[in-house]
């Protein structure tokens, strides 16, 4: 699969134009396009423009209601519940994290539970949103059933991504991971290029572990990360997301024709308001420094979550953002 290097401003503006044609308001079109474009800028290609066509399809099928915005359902101190009204998932998530951050500025901590929303695309975007304002960010979402419980034949769990982000002067630590060993977006990219995974990715029809991403995609049988531990954590994330928001669980999402009406939680903490400034920066630096000081195996390197992102971002700003030629052709075709 051949890649093209697209200048970031061109990538952003092209996506923006398409969204304007689709009916998004100007500012919303820009912010939505920016979330997609920045995902590829940071090297997370499985959740950026590769999903843009599907996003447009969901709008046209009435799954994503682009004119809908979150509405407040209830509030109690630092905790609020909102209804996403099936609006654009990435814009809903951005708004929810912004509101959690505003609550954190007031209370030291803010928590927003969001029901009836759509796929947030790259979950890490909302962790970066928090750390860029000097705040801690934590968020998670449930998904359609796409992962089996340990020892189960059928998928009753979602791969339920989790994001934890810690601000740091010399580069924030941002963990963005699904509960499956490999995210489905990553498996799709590998399958499209005929590659296999370095580690087992899921199960085949007989329940045996397989490195073949296509088999995992066809069976919706991703391997839980940490095996039974990842399966247990996935269940707990689904419980928290559905119970706190009052929205759908993985089971309810699975009853819909297409993945929709997800439940999500966004948490932010403000170190300044919480009185952590006296030690926050020094402790974070000491922990990361000690971590990076671990001796690596020959030919290997130790990185903390998010460390490579800033390097990738800088390189892609200078050289252009890699986009698969076929994907870019499909995007350009939307402008004709």
UniProtKB/TrEMBL annotation:
What GO molecular functions are on record for this protein? 3-dehydro-L-gulonate 2-dehydrogenase activity
Protein name as it appears in the record: 3-dehydro-L-gulonate 2-dehydrogenase
Tell me the name of the encoding gene: yiaK
Q: What is its EC number?
A: 1.1.1.130
Q: Which UniProt keywords apply?
A: Oxidoreductase
Pfam families documented for this protein:
Ldh_2 (PF02615)
Source organism of the structure: Algoriphagus oliviformis
What domain of life does the UniProt record list for this protein's source? Bacteria
Under NCBIfam families, the record lists: PRK13260.1
